[in-house]
Amino acid sequence: MESPVQDTIESRVQSVLAKIRSAAEKAGRPASSVRLVAATKTVPVEKIAEGVQAGLAILGENRVQEALSKIPAFNPGPVQWHFIGQLQRRKVRSVIGVFDLIHSVDSLELAQEIDRRAGDAGRRQDVLLEVNIGNEPTKAGFCPDDVRQAVSELAQLSHIRIKGLMAIPPPTINPDSARPYFRKLAELAKTIDAQHLPSVKMDELSIGMSNDYEVAIEEGATLVRVGSAIFGARHV
Ligand SMILES: *Cc1c(COP(=O)(O)O)cnc(C)c1O
After folding, report:
1. Which atom of ligand 1 is closest in space to residue 229's alpha carbon?
2. 91 CB-near residues (< 8 Å, 6+ apart)
3. Nearest-CA neighbor of 110 among 160, 37, 39?
């Protein structure tokens, strides 16, 4: 028989939150310096609601249509929505004002479009720049060597605020193998902060997923994006 006590969304949320706290403590950081973003792609609203009941405060979606269809079920409510997937320029208009943070700004053109549309809406959009930290040919994101230059250009835009960096390192089996990539991203954020650009502050590092979020926290993660460890394996 399966054990219903151990394997509910509620118990998994609590277990992930506990592991986040202990990883932060182990790294000598306050637990409040790390926030959990639950990655909810493909997860139906009822299951997400169970997670929110159990204490999830930030939900991260990958696809615009899917997000827009789920969000009304939680409004008005205490949860924040973040956008973590690849964002097409033609969809930017429909995400302004919907997401508190867009983690996945992967080109100058996308950032400029967000700035333009946020301006039209009279808003300022918080964003992270996605870095292709492993220089993988098939992966989205700024090349590590290009980020500093990109940030200094984007610092001119008055309707976005660059809050930090995000990365998805090359897939590894051993979580420790991701550590050098996390460290490299943290160092990149430090060199950007040292440029003291207007409206650029590297407060956030969005790194770590189900497999490696504890390692990411040791390396400075402030946002960990965790899906399957909470909602189970995705079959889609
Ligand atoms: C799905 C997804 C995650 C979560 O992945 P898990 O391995 O299920 O924790 C994190 N970040 C992004 C960008 C994702 O698309």
Report:
1. 9
2. 64
3. 160
- How many angstroms does the Cα of residue 225 sit away from the middle of ligand 1? 6
pTM above 0.90, yes or no: yes
CA distance 106 to 219: 22
For the CA of 225, the nearest atom of ligand 1: 10
- Ligand 1 center from residue 210 Cα (angstroms): 7
Segment (H or E) for 61: strand 58-61
Tokens 């976005």, residue located: 160
Is 227 a pocket residue for ligand 1 (Cβ < 6 Å)?
yes
CA of 147 to the centre of ligand 1 (A): 23
Q: Domains (ranges, CATH) in the chain?
A: 9-229 (3.20.20.10)
State pLDDT tens for residues 118-155.
999 999 999 999 999 999 999 999 999 999 999 999 99
- pLDDT digits over 31-80, tens only? 999 999 999 999 999 999 999 999 999 999 999 999 999 999 999 999 99
